[in-house]
Specification:
The chain is of the alpha/beta class. It has a single domain, classed as 3-Layer(aba) Sandwich (Rossmann fold). Helix content is 27%, strand content 25%. The chain has 6 helices and 9 strands. It has a 9-stranded mixed beta sheet with strand order 3-2-1-4-5-7-6-8-9. α1 links the parallel β4 and β5. α2 packs across α3. It starts with a strand and ends in a 9-residue tail after the last helix.
Length: 228
């Protein structure tokens, strides 16, 4: 059986450990240099068990070729993960970003319009999880103002710093659709918690959160404007 691979699309100089890096610019972390929006990816059909991409999708005009190549190279049951700035945050509209991405795009692909996208995707993309990455300081601020997280996600801007989707790839077009779990974390790979599990806090919770935030700010490094 062919070796199963893990692929990082648009890896730049921050390739995910254990993954093969693809980008259009040469770099120490780039294993294959190509145009991801037009070129054939250097992998055989059905040989990839995981695809990861961070802060790439918002930079390209349209993802049809990218999605088609993912569908070609992925094995049945492969994990697909995309992370982008969330459309309802200021960072989403930095210079060079051409799309603001929310849950709506993914629900079109995997739920409401999945028949229309089946040919492009090469199968079904089952939406397993939406991940909302939220800074600890933002959670503390919401707590201090008595705002439930689910409410803030629906109606407020600049709450979510980064948005991720976790997808299971299936070739069987008859596989039932899946409604994604909604979770939040304070870092991309941090502990996931259901968004509905964070109720309006008590005053004691707010005091504890503020104290924890002060300690974390002392230790936290600075973060660039558009960090992958």
């Amino acid at each position: 059986m062919a070796e199963r691979l893990r692929v990082d699309l648009g890896c730049g100089n921050a390739k995910r450990p254990g993954y093969v890096g693809l980008d259009y610019v040469e770099g120490d972390d780039v294993d294959h240099v190509l145009d991801l929006t037009t070129d054939r990816y250097p992998f055989d059909d059905g040989t990839v068990e995981a695809v990861f991409s961070a802060h790439f999708l918002e930079h390209i005009d349209e993802p049809n070729h990218v999605f088609g190549e993912i569908g070609r190279i992925c094995a049945d049951g492969a994990l697909i993960e995309f992370y982008t700035p969330y459309a309802w945050t200021n960072e989403a509209w930095l210079y060079g970003h051409v799309h603001g991405i929310t849950e709506e795009m993914w629900t079109h692909l995997g739920l409401s319009h999945r028949e229309a996208y089946a040919d492009i995707l090469g199968g079904r993309w089952l939406l397993r999880r939406f991940v909302f990455v939220i800074d600890e300081a933002t959670l503390v601020d919401l707590d201090a103002n008595g705002v439930q997280l689910d409410f803030a996600l629906r109606y407020y801007q600049n709450v979510v710093r980064e948005f991720g989707v976790e997808v299971e790839f299936r070739r069987d077009l008859d596989v039932p659709e899946v409604g994604p779990e909604r979770v939040y974390a304070t870092s991309r790979f941090g502990e996931r918690r259901p968004t509905w599990s964070r109720p309006v806090p008590t005053r004691s919770v707010v005091r504890t959160s503020l104290s924890r935030l002060k300690r974390s700010l002392v230790r936290a490094p600075s973060r660039g404007a558009d960090v992958r």
